[in-house]
């Protein structure tokens, strides 16, 4: 069988190791579609897996990478044929199923979404799981009934991947966006994306009051912990927050006060096992609602040989916007 380049994670005596190596095609896992991977991206979860800072990987050896875009090479699935352009993210790739940082991937056809018209494979991975998660969050706020006339919306982790795309989406939809960031030096960048106000994340990092002054009608949070608790305490009556990340921790030191006294809703955003109809809607909306010029502004490109070092940079908060990984 042929071999191909891949970023492989192995169990070590202490933790894990990651290396760019040759992977034997015979070791690919079961699936009914084989894809030539052309582009991937780097998400916070990828950084955790590559560095071993959290037990993201649950089988070894593992090919890292939770999302890809590419071309179908071979298929026994009724919906896919060779030459089809596809996007795949989540479903345990890079965790329990061999992932995306490789020249080939074998997956279940039911996991795939057709690359939307108007998007290139590179565009799709400039969006990536982070941007797709941001879109799922926007959809949750819309389903709640939130509109721009209801008031400002806040985005935490604003200079990161989810935050950057969320700001671009919300501003284009007409919302007054408040961007929360620990990197105030990125103010010009955030305003170019469409942020109307910038606040320091320290305003949201202290112990949360049960209820604080109402500041926003909704928000998208990728930070968690005390930040999310503060967001909830400052959300207006009948507002909503979409929670999609845990960069600051998995705890939520809040109270029931925002929920039972202001009717605030907290929406959990799961990008990994999200049903296919919701995925298709999210990717369709990304193709139509995301400003391609802004996407280009927030994206930089690296090669497969740079993925491991870039993973550490993501965890250290040294990366703004999106990173696309050229696989070929």
Automatic annotation (TrEMBL):
Which GO MF terms are attached to this record?
Answer: acryloyl-CoA reductase (NADPH) activity
- UniProt cross-references to InterPro entries, sorted A to Z: Acrylyl-CoA_reductase_AcuI, ADH-like_C, ADH-like_N, ER, GroES-like_sf, NAD(P)-bd_dom_sf, Zn-ADH-like_protein
Highest taxon of the source?
Bacteria
Stretches assigned to the Enoyl reductase (ER) domain: 15-325
Query: Which Pfam family, any one of them, does this sequence belong to?
Result: ADH_zinc_N
Q: What is this protein called?
A: Oxidoreductase
PANTHER family reported for this sequence: ACRYLYL-COA REDUCTASE ACUI-RELATED (PTHR43677:SF1), SHORT-CHAIN DEHYDROGENASE/REDUCTASE (PTHR43677)
What SUPFAM superfamilies does the database record attribute to this sequence? GroES-like, NAD(P)-binding Rossmann-fold domains
């Amino acid at each position: 069988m042929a071999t191909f380049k891949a970023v492989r994670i192995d169990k070590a005596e202490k933790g894990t190791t990651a290396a760019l190596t040759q992977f034997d095609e015979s070791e690919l896992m079961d699936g009914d579609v084989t894809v030539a991977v052309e582009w991937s991206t780097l998400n916070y979860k990828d950084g955790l897996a590559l560095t071993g800072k959290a037990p993201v990987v649950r089988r070894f050896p593992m090919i890292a990478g939770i999302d890809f875009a590419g071309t179908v090479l071979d298929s026994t699935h009724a919906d896919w044929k060779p030459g089809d352009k596809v996007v795949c993210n989540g479903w345990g790739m890079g965790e329990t199923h061999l992932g995306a940082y490789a020249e080939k991937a074998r997956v279940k056809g039911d996991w795939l979404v057709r690359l939307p018209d108007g998007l290139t494979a590179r565009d799709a991975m400039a969006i990536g799981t982070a941007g797709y998660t941001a879109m799922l969050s926007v959809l949750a706020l819309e389903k709640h009934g939130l509109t721009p006339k209801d008031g400002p919306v806040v985005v935490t982790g604003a200079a990161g991947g989810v935050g950057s795309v969320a700001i671009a989406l919300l501003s284009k939809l007409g919302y007054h966006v408040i961007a929360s960031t620990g990197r105030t030096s990125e103010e010009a960048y955030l305003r170019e994306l469409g942020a109307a106000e910038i606040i320091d994340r320290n305003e949201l990092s202290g112990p949360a009051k049960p209820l604080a002054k109402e500041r926003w009608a909704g928000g998208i949070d990728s930070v968690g912990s005390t930040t999310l608790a503060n967001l909830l305490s400052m959300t207006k009556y009948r507002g909503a927050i979409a929670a999609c990340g845990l960069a600051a921790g998995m705890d939520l030191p809040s109270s029931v006060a925002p929920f039972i006294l202001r009717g605030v809703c907290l929406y959990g955003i799961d990008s990994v096992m999200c049903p296919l109809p919701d995925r298709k809607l999210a990717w369709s909306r990304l193709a139509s609602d995301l400003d391609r010029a802004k996407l280009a502004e927030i994206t930089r490109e690296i090669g497969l040989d740079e993925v491991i070092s870039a993973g550490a940079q993501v965890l250290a908060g040294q990366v703004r916007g999106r990173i696309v990984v050229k696989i070929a």
